[in-house]
Amino acid sequence: MGAILAAAAGFPAIVFTAALVVVVVFWLLVAVRVTDSGSFDADADVDAWGMGGVPVTVAFSAMTVLAWIVSVTGTVLLDPVASPGMDRALIRLAVLAAALLIAWRGARVLVRPLHRLFPDEPDPSRADFIGLVCAVRTEPVDTESGPSEAVAQGDSTSAIGGGPPGAEPPPYGRTAPLCAYDDTGEYFRVTPHHAALAPRGHAA
């Protein structure tokens, strides 16, 4: 046990020991719902590393655990047979390189069965906005002049109001539901304002 602890606290395993502590703390935060496993998916892409289909945190965790195991095991097995000085330093650098390579290749194998636990979510569509209530942020909003900006549940989008013939278009600061999307013109149409549909926090 003493040799394992010494190896974990020395180079090269100390690099992965520190990363392992971060991984453990992160998953504890996930367990208590402070964060979620997909927190870093927008910041990194593991597809190029052959580990797509799972959250970045899962791929990183698998690599960290494997690298830690390989580096500690390699240090414990090879240090006793290496002479102090340059030989030991070269062996530890070789252990570091081997740990990274084995961890990467091993993680690719380990995460493959996990793909089904993280199904791909459909890409967001502009059709998802249909039926939402927007708050008009520019003016005028009508069928002739535009585009005008509208905010629907915190998301900004371009919108052109178009109600029934003769209907007065919603003025600036009022709310209106998005009723259709024009693929050709790439804009939304809004119906006349309905106070009963005003979202919380917007003036009717």
Structure report:
By secondary structure, the chain is α+β, with helices and mostly antiparallel strands. It contains four helices and five strands. β4 (175-182) and β5 form a beta hairpin. α1 crosses α3, α2 (13-31) runs antiparallel to α3 (56-78) and α3 (56-78) runs antiparallel to α4. The longest helix is centred in the middle third of the chain and has 26 residues, at 86-111. It is elongated. The N and C termini lie far apart (69 Å). Residues 143-148, 162-167 and 195-204 have low confidence and may be disordered.
Strand order of the largest sheet: 1-2-3-5-4
Spans with pLDDT under 50 lasting ≥5 residues?
143-148, 162-167, 195-204
Order of helical and strand elements: HHHHEEEEE
Average pLDDT, rounded to a whole number, is 75
The largest pleated sheet is described as:
5 strands, mixed, barrel
Alpha-carbon Rg, integer = 28 Å
Secondary structural class: alpha+beta
How far is the N terminus from the C terminus?
Answer: 69 Å
Instruction: Figure out the total of helices.
Output: 4
Shape: elongated
Count of individual beta strands: 5
What is the helix content?
25-40%
Using brief descriptors, characterize the structure shown.
single chain, 204 residues, alpha+beta, 5-stranded mixed barrel, 4 helices
What is the strand and helix layout of this fold?
Elements: H1 2-9, H2 13-31, H3 56-78, H4 86-111, E1 133-136, E2 148-152, E3 155-161, E4 175-182, E5 187-190
Parallel strand pairs: 3-5
Antiparallel strand pairs: 1-2, 1-4, 2-3, 4-5
